[in-house]
Amino acid sequence: MISKRSTSGGKPPSGSSINKRRGNSAVLLVSSLLTVGFLVVLIRLVVLQAFQHAEWSKRAEREHEKNVSIEAERGAIYDRNGTVLAMNVEIPSVYAVPGEIRNAAAVSRKLGPILNIDPKSLAKKIDEGKNFVWLARKIEPAKAEQIRRLQLEGIGFVMESQRFYPKRALFGHLLGFAGLDNRGLEGIELKYDTTLRGEKGWLVLERDAHGKSIFPKDLNYIAPSRGKDLYLTVDEVIQHVSERELDRVVDQTHAKGGTIIVMDPWNGEILAMAVRPRFNPNTVRTHQPSEWRNRAITDAYEPGSTFKIVAASAALEEKVVDPNELIDCEEGAYPLFGTVIHDHEPVGVVPFRQVIAKSSNIGTAKVAQRLGEKRLSSYITAFGFGERLGIDLFGETPGLVRDPGRWSKRSLASVAIGQEIGVTPLQVITAFSAIANGGWVMTPHLVRQVKQIDLQQVGGAGRLIKESSPQVRRRAVSEGTAREMVRILEGVVSKSGTGVKATIPGYTVAGKTGTAQKIDPATGRYSAHDFVSSFVGFAPAEDPAVAILVMVDEPEGEAWGGSVAAPVFSAIGREVLHYLKVPPHPPVAEQVLTASLNVQDEAESHPGSRSPKRRFTGAAAPKRPTAASLLNVSSAVASNGLATRRTQRELLETE
Predict the structure, then answer these.
(1) How far is CA 455 from CA 72, 88, 155, 251, in A?
(2) φ, ψ for residue 227, nearest 5 deg
(3) How far is the CA of 474 from the CAs of 365, 439, 621, in angstroms?
(4) Residue 462 region, left (φ>0) first, then alpha (ψ -120 to 50), else beta?
(5) Which active-site residues does the annotation give?
(6) In 3D, which of 373, 378, 444, 441 has the Cα closest to residue 412?
(7) CA dist 303 to 310, 386, 417, 486, Å?
(8) Model confidence, pTM
(9) Per-residue model confidence as pLDDT tens digits over 148-187
(10) Residue 385: beta bridge partners?
């Protein structure tokens, strides 16, 4: 039996019903998406309001604020007597607002000749699309006045601080210079940049919708902190005398350059440091980097006979020679390891003190052979050669001192007479100062005081922040050896010595001449024409006020240190001693200075005897002075004269 399907249950759905269902699904989907989106937005708003409110508030503020940094005024630099050596001056800088300039090419044609800038380059800079453009920073006031008279639309001026050196080239290499941003780039300016620079200030400005600054926000202003002032050890008068005499000898001899250093031997203070070629920090753009290099601390050279003080001091300290012992100088020629050592003039049999006075290479080499390589090398180090002495300047070099293990058979003799070794002028004068002060190697330095000026106090002297004190590096030789070396070096300046032209009327002088051949780069051998002529010494010999180094690089013609450099030492010493009010000393008996004339008879009649000793105050076996004890005598010799120097000497000898 076949059953019939129900007509009502088997009827297919209509099209309208399907569309309705689809519409409901779409509505549900859209509603769900809107609900989810709303929830996401709601959650995000809760996060922003509850957890990130502070951060976004700050961001909004930054959109309407502008932080403007205010440069701090750089501290000044003075010499030891308060003379200004470096200061700040307000100087104009010219800028352009391109949006206010209708014809950039026409404006550039007018400005180019005044600013010494190509007009096309100026026009390109103006048309770069910026709101503000620097055209020239820190220009001469006269040029700024020319531009003002043109009354150009969109051209304006801002006064900026620039470093100015009122003494021009005087102290140029020592001071160095600061750049456009007032940051130190060379010399004292670089070494003490953080001290001189100070701290920036800040001003917060409110900005409108166009980004223009309209007024300070809540008077939010942090004032800049002015940099600290430096008072150096150098003296303008002594520096002027040194540079004048250096210019004179360089011009007269047509030399390549030269260096003069004046030092207080008791505390290591640099009183003057002159270097040629000349350098003016006000016009640094006109100089090559080689011209602003401070060769007194950076350039090493073979010192020649001035270095003989090391071998002589070592021989006396080690007691391998007596000052009056006769040394055969072989009449000017001495074969050694397949080579021949020569003297500049024949010398026969003379006492050791005359070996130094006559600057005999042969006599010095013979005594050095008694010392040996290790002992000579140890005294080279003791006197400060081969190391940085710690002067407060960047760029100091240690020189060139080879380890004895790398010496040849000839090296012992060569090094003893100042060859096969590289030293700086600063090292040489520091070593001579050690002889002058009784054997102490002092750390050379340039800054005496650091002061903070109170801007609220008009005419105030400033608050002392830091004061330097003498620093002893080590003892090089004993006081007795130093005394004996002083007597020997006095002989150099006697009538029988090579440095007679270093004599200063009314004062005793101790020193040493030096004439060193330079290496010819083309051949790698010693040049027959290029020399370094030098004289280093101190005066008064028995109570030194100053030590002076004179080094002349490649003088033409006669190049002997006794002829070229010694007269310069005399000229500087004469003026400086008078300036420092150092009283003249009675003349020393000539027979003491020319002991070689009668020392043989004296030695034969009094075996083991020595030449008469001069009086030196202080204990026979001095102890190393402490920084605390030396602090009491750190005031300058240039300020306090002979009394201060004697106090310093007694402390060095008795502490």
Answers:
(1) 12, 15, 34, 46
(2) -65, 165
(3) 26, 9, 15
(4) left
(5) 305
(6) 373
(7) 12, 13, 9, 20
(8) 0.77
(9) 998 888 888 887 778 899 999 999 999 999 987 888 999 9
(10) none
